Amino acid sequence: MQQTARATENALGRPVTGTSVMPSVGIVPDVPVWIASLQQLYLNGTISASRGVPVGGRTSLGLEGEYRSLSRRSSACGASYKGWDFASGITLPYVWEEATGTFNVNQASRSTTDRVSNLYDMYFTPIMAGYHFSANDHIALSFNIWVPTGKYEAGALANASLNNWTFVPQIAYTHLVPKYGLEFDDVMGFQFYTRNSATDYQNAPLFTLDVMGLKKFTNGVGVGLVMGTIQQDRQRHRPDSRSAQRFRRT
Question: What are the chain's domains?
Answer without folding.
Answer: 3-237 (2.40.128)
